[in-house]
Design goal:
Layout (H helix, E strand, L loop, with lengths): L1 E2 L8 H10 L3 H15 L6 E6 L1 H16 L1 E2 L1 H4 L2 H9 L24 H21 L3 E2 L1 E4 L2 E4 L2 E7 L24 E7 L21 E7 L3 H5 L6 H15 L7 H17 L9 H5 L38 H4 L33 E3 L6 E5 L5 E4 H8 L14 H4 L8 E5 L5 H9 L26 E5 L12 E5 L4 H10 L5 H7 L7
Parallel strand pairs: 1-2, 2-7, 7-8, 8-9, 9-12, 12-15
Antiparallel strand pairs: 3-4, 5-6, 10-11, 13-14, 14-15
């Protein structure tokens, strides 16, 4: 089940209320959860997918299933009361007598990790009470025995929550539940809005969820999809499809090829697509720059002609084979990334997202604490390194992209530095080595484009925390580069690698003068 999220429709009212204040989150969670309860058939796989606050909805529904199970018909009669209990499960100020369970675990002033454990224990106790009273179930039985009802996978793009603007629904899903077997999260490095701070998952000790959170270039809508220029969104889509393929989800090869080809054709027709003027452009006119260094993009600045308006959405883009489209299209990883167009949503301030340094949030104040998130398993996508090596452009094509999110701390000092060598641990490296593309008749009839031949020694990179950095803590000393081994990622790369091949060029000419 995919949920697009409130604030993502074309309605101006929805964009304002849902997009800015998160209005509608609780209703969306109720609707999705109720749909699953009433339609689940024993043995079904539960897979939840969403973007933005739709991602928050998907995660909250997964957490609610893990917390209260699937309500029985009797439980559905008490749906709103149970939902209100779940919504306030982490609220330490709520009177325990207001819960359906009269003996719900009270709050005794726990802080940090102890508070997270208190909340998990409270959820477990509440679920047991619901089960005892016949209001929910966490298992089903068939001829082979009793089976747990788990969430097969949750796949999300750039989760943002209640935006830090009260009043807002209170949901506690920072800690991924052990009942979620697989959790996949695509994150944007360049989203500047403070109100759109990302809600990363963390794993508490003993949790066996297969968690993977990967950072990509671009802002919130660039990673999740929303601009006419879809190249980065196609990269995140291919990555997510590979993650979901690993748990049994199948994708239509023809439709996937169409999506990838449409993106390449758009780029070929709009290599310098429209960028809105900002107030600062009156003071400092934007210099037109080639979209990569001269060895990748031989276009002279004097010959650049930028679109004067947004694409109208009508398909007049160039046709032809990949090599013909490469003559004007921006290749893989170098697509345009955009600055948010809504100035209203920057009123609460701007920030720089720094991978590997996120802290737990106080559920009562929505402010960061001094407790780092545990076991986030963050990785950096290889498109980051390729964009840096090829000197791709910053947001709105305003200068060369330097990835401040990784390279520079808020005080101006170095934060993460790129080094050769795998950052994966032994078990992760073995899983990559042993991984094989599932045989699904993946190559559509007549499709001669084969997946890109990524070499065994490729992607042997890692981002290492700068020594003695004041924000350093031992929980995330290395951020591995995410290995590019999946079928759909390599299919997209084969279609958009360009000439010269940017993947191979970046391997041979790494950024920061590395050799």
């Amino acid at each position: 089940m995919y949920h697009p999220g409130v604030g993502s429709s074309d309605s101006v009212v929805d964009k304002f209320t849902g997009g800015l204040f998160g209005v509608g989150l609780d209703q969306a969670i109720r609707e999705v959860y109720n749909f699953i309860c009433t339609n689940y058939v024993d043995g079904d796989d539960i897979i939840l997918i969403g973007f933005s606050r739709g991602a928050f909805t998907a995660r909250s529904v997964a957490d609610m299933i893990a917390t209260v199970g699937l309500l029985t018909p009797s439980g559905l009669d008490h749906f709103y009361a149970i939902f209100e209990d779940y919504e306030n499960m982490g609220d330490s100020d709520r009177d325990p007598s207001l819960f359906l369970d009269p003996k719900v675990l009270p709050y005794n002033g726990e802080k940090g990790a102890a508070r997270a454990n208190w909340e998990m224990d409270r959820k477990s106790q509440y679920e047991r009470w619901l089960s005892k009273n016949g209001l929910t179930r966490h298992t089903y039985e068939d001829a082979n025995g009793v089976h747990e009802i788990n969430i097969k996978a949750v796949g999300v793009w750039d989760t943002v929550g209640a935006l830090g603007i009260p009043p807002a629904p209170v949901f506690s899903n920072t800690q991924v539940s052990d009942r979620v077997e697989n959790a996949f999260h695509a994150l944007s490095l360049d989203e500047p809005r403070f109100a759109f701070r990302p809600a990363l998952w963390e794993k508490l000790e003993g949790n066996k969820t297969n968690l993977r959170q990967v950072w990509f270039p671009g802002n919130h809508a660039g990673v999740g999809g929303g601009w006419h220029e879809q190249q980065i969104a196609s990269i995140t889509l291919a990555w997510m499809c590979d993650q979901l393929s690993s748990v049994g989800v199948e994708f239509n090869p023809g439709r996937m090829s169409d999506i990838f080809t449409e993106g390449l054709r758009f780029s070929a027709g709009h290599p310098f697509s429209y960028v809105p003027s900002s107030w600062s452009s009156w003071l400092r006119p934007r210099q037109q720059l080639p979209w990569a260094n001269p060895k990748i993009c031989p276009v002279k600045a004097s010959s650049i002609h930028r679109d004067e308006a947004e694409c109208d959405g009508k398909d007049r883009h160039p046709a032809g084979g990949a090599e013909e489209l490469w003559k004007t299209a921006r290749p893989w990883g170098l697509g345009q990334i955009r600055y948010p167009t809504s100035r209203l949503q920057t009123w609460s301030g701007t920030t720089i997202r720094h991978p590997g340094t996120f802290m737990r949030t106080d559920p009562e104040t929505n402010q960061d604490t001094d407790q780092p998130l545990l076991n986030t398993n963050e990785r950096i996508h290889s498109s980051v390194r390729v964009r840096l090596a090829c000197q791709g452009l910053a947001m709105d094509d305003d200068g060369v992209w330097d990835c401040k999110a990784l390279a520079t701390a808020d005080d101006g000092s170095g934060l993460w530095k790129l080094e050769r060598g795998s950052g994966l641990n032994a078990s992760e490296a073995d899983s990559v080595k042993d991984g094989k593309t599932r045989k699904l008749d993946l190559d559509a009839e007549g499709d001669v484009l084969k997946p890109y031949p990524v070499q065994k020694e490729d992607s042997q990179w890692k981002w290492v925390l700068a020594s003695k950095h004041p924000n350093a803590f031992p929980l995330a000393g290395v951020l591995p580069e995410e290995p590019l081994t999946g079928y759909w990622e390599r299919k997209l790369l084969a279609l958009t690698a360009g000439n010269p091949d940017v993947w191979r060029w970046a391997e041979e000419n790494p950024p920061f003068g590395l050799i």
